[in-house]
Write a structure and sequence with these properties.
Blueprint (H helix, E strand, L loop, with lengths): L1 H21 L2 H66 L3 H32 L5 E4 H13 L5 E5 L4 E4 L1 H17 L6 E7 L2 E6 L29 H11 L3 E7 L3 E7 L9
Helix pairs in contact: 1-2, 2-3, 4-5, 5-6
């Protein structure tokens, strides 16, 4: 393509020289203007092509570094996991087994953090593939994780729902909402998690959010007076995920009565044969 542009440019320059000597000055100035415009376009194209080529190269180098780094981080995690499982099998004292299992639980959380770190890095430089998953299984798995904190009472009412989606991003979004539900409600209060009519509904009975702040809660780093404990990025992450995946997100809240978060998966539902 660059050779074609250069060839056309050379032809125009030759035409300009010929016309300058054969025709009057008005025509030569017209051709000069055309050549100038074309020259600017050619320069812009070559500059864009050069910058794009450099960026493509840098993206490939960055992708390689990221893959290598994530691989190196994952190696010691796998080593620890293999050895702790062998240790648990060899122990006989119940107190030692209990301690080893706590280490194993901490390792599970570390693996989870690694997966989220890997996901957050990769989604910035790569296209994230979608998986076909059962939303019910994901919800039960995430609730099971938060139940380990022995805090709130989770009431689950779920049903089978097959969707095609970015699985890790979905888990991250659900985690953010469940964490907020626990953080901003009394430790003895209920948290309802329900799948109904292609929607995931998470409802708490916590402190709630002022009505005039509901339109601001998706802004990154925004902290309302009600949500002053957080860092202000959780709901922004959830909103960005939903927007990317065409999931309708609706948050209803009333000060002093709690918050209801609704994910609508109608656009992600897999048709049953």
């Amino acid at each position: 393509m660059k050779l074609i542009f250069l060839l056309l440019y050379s032809i125009l320059v030759i035409i300009e020289i010929v016309i300058f000597y054969i025709l009057n000055i008005e025509y030569s100035m017209l051709i000069a203007l055309i050549v100038t415009i074309f020259s600017a376009l050619l320069f812009g194209y070559i500059l864009y092509d050069f910058i794009n080529e450099q960026k493509s190269h840098q993206d490939k180098v960055l992708e390689h570094i990221v893959q290598e780094t994530l691989h190196e981080i994952n190696l010691p995690i796998n080593t620890i996991e293999a050895n702790i499982n062998m240790l648990i099998k060899s122990l006989e004292n119940q107190k030692d087994i209990k301690k080893a299992k706590r280490v194993n639980q901490a390792l599970d959380r570390l693996k989870r953090l690694y997966q989220q770190l890997s996901y957050n890095i990769k989604k910035e430089i790569l296209d994230i593939e979608e998986d076909i998953v059962n939303l019910e299984e994901i919800v039960k798995d995430r609730v099971s994780y938060f139940r380990e904190f022995n805090r709130n009472n989770f009431i689950i009412d779920t049903k089978h729902l097959i969707i095609k989606i970015d699985k890790i991003g979905l888990e991250q979004a659900i985690d953010n909402i469940l964490e907020n539900a626990m953080k901003y409600s009394d430790k003895n209060s209920d948290i309802i998690v329900k799948i109904d009519n292609d929607r995931l509904i998470i409802k708490d009975f916590g402190i709630g959010i002022e009505q005039d702040e509901l339109s601001l809660i998706y802004q990154r780093y925004y902290q309302s007076n009600s949500l002053k404990k957080g860092d202000g990025i959780g709901l922004s992450i959830v909103k960005n995920f939903c927007d990317r995946n065409k999931i309708a997100l609706n948050i209803k809240s009333k000060k002093g009565f709690g918050t209801k978060v609704i994910f609508d998966f109608k656009n992600k539902k897999m048709q049953q044969n």
